[in-house]
Amino acid sequence: MKQILTLTTALAVLLLGLLNAVAAESSPGCGKTPSLRNQQYTMTVNGKQRQYFIKLPDNYSPTRPYRLIFTYHQLGGSAQKIVNGEDTNRGGALPYYGLPPLSNNSAIFVVPNGLNNGWANQGGEDVTFFDQLVQHVSNELCVDTRLIFSTGFSYGGAMSFALACARPNVVRAVAVLSGAQLSGCQGGTQPVAYYGQHGTADSVLNVSGGRQLRDRFVRNNGCTPVNPEPQPGATSVKTRYQGCKEGYPVTWVIHRGDHNPSERDGNTIFAPGNTWEFFSQFS
Ligand SMILES: *[C@@H]1O[C@H](CO)[C@@H](O)[C@H](O)[C@H]1NC(C)=O
Ligand SMILES: *[C@@H]1O[C@H](CO)[C@@H](O)[C@H](O)[C@H]1NC(C)=O
Question: What are the TM regions of this chain, as residue ranges (predicted)?
Answer without folding.
Answer: none
